[in-house]
């Protein structure tokens, strides 16, 4: 949409969420820092695999589950010292949930407290997010406004085509407590609760079809599937160059992977 069209939409439908987001985006100035991005996904959908690829790119500063209710997970723990306090104070879950915008401002800088870049060649900075990260802390409005509602934040939306595989993987992890690389016992059996599984499918579809759809999705969103990730030849030849261009980093980078962890 053009700027004039955005104003027209706002005047015609001032109560519509999309029109409000588009109008507010017109007032957003371009930031003078690194490209911001977020990997929007769901548990057991290949996010560790994708984040491993992203973090190996020399121009990408990739954090992990920064808004996980349990802890702040990142590949760069030294970057979590607070800029607004003395140098011995680290961001905690409580402080993060109380001041999420202040926390994000520091993350988006891509720098340590001394002002140096986390990566010398860093051009983009991001983290991954699941729906429950924001709901558990009652910060969904921050997610909607600061991430989905900000067209300056690129959205990489990662889903898995086979919902049954997601469900089974989640149940295996819940039963065994194994979430990273460990193999599951051969005799492990999963009982499928049909009503619960149907509820899961409804939530999964709603999340990827509605919740993760920004008002500017044609410009600020890049969709990818787990199945595309594990097809290494196709990913490296056809998907990765588009992804690098979308984020704004060197598209000649050699792909490096962590061990694949979602089964």
* Strand fraction: 5-15%
Shape: globular
Mean pLDDT: 85
Q: What's the β-strand tally?
A: 5
The strand order across the widest sheet is: 2-3-1-4-5
Number of helices: 12
H-E string: HHEHEHHEHHEHHHEHH
- How far apart the termini lie comes to 41 Å
Unreliable parts? none
Question: Main β-sheet, in a few words?
Answer: 5 strands, parallel
Assembly state here? single chain
Structural class of the helices, strands and pairings? Answer: alpha/beta
Based on CA atoms alone, the radius of gyration comes out at 19 Å
What share of residues is helical? 40-55%
Q: Quick gist of this model?
A:
The chain has 263 residues and is of the alpha/beta class. Helices cover 44% and strands 10% of the residues.
Structure write-up:
- With 263 residues, the chain is an alpha/beta fold.
- It is built from twelve helices and five strands.
- Strands 2-3-1-4-5 form a five-stranded parallel beta sheet, sandwiched between helices.
- The longest helix has 18 residues, at 194-211.
- It is globular.
- The model has no long low-confidence stretch (mean pLDDT 85).
Descriptors:
single chain, 263 residues, alpha/beta, five-stranded parallel β-sheet, 12 helices, 44% helix, 10% strand, globular
């Amino acid at each position: 949409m053009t700027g004039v069209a955005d104003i027209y939409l706002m005047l015609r439908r001032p109560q519509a969420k999309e029109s409000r987001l588009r109008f507010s985006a017109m007032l957003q100035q371009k930031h003078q820092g690194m490209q911001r991005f977020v990997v929007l996904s769901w548990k057991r959908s290949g996010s560790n695999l994708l984040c491993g690829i992203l973090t190996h790119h020399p121009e990408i500063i990739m954090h992990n589950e920064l808004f996980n209710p349990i802890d702040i997970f990142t590949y760069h723990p030294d970057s979590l010292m607070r800029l607004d306090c003395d140098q011995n104070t680290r961001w905690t879950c409580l402080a993060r949930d109380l001041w999420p915008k202040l926390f994000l401002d520091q993350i988006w800088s891509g720098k340590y407290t001394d002002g140096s870049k986390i990566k010398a060649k860093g051009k983009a900075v991001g983290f991954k997010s699941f729906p429950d990260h924001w709901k558990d802390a009652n910060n969904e409005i921050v997610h909607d406004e600061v991430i989905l509602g900000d067209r300056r934040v690129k959205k990489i939306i990662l889903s898995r085509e086979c919902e049954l595989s997601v469900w089974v993987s989640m149940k295996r992890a819940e039963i065994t407590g194994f979430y990273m690389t460990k193999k599951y016992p051969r005799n492990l059996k999963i009982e499928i609760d049909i009503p619960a599984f149907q509820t899961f499918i409804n939530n999964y579809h709603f999340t990827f079809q509605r919740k993760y759809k920004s008002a500017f999705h044609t410009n600020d969103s890049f969709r990818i599937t787990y199945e595309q990730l594990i097809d290494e030849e196709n990913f490296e030849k056809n998907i990765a160059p588009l992804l690098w261009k979308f984020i704004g980093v060197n598209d000649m980078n050699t792909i490096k992977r962590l061990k694949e962890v979602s089964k």
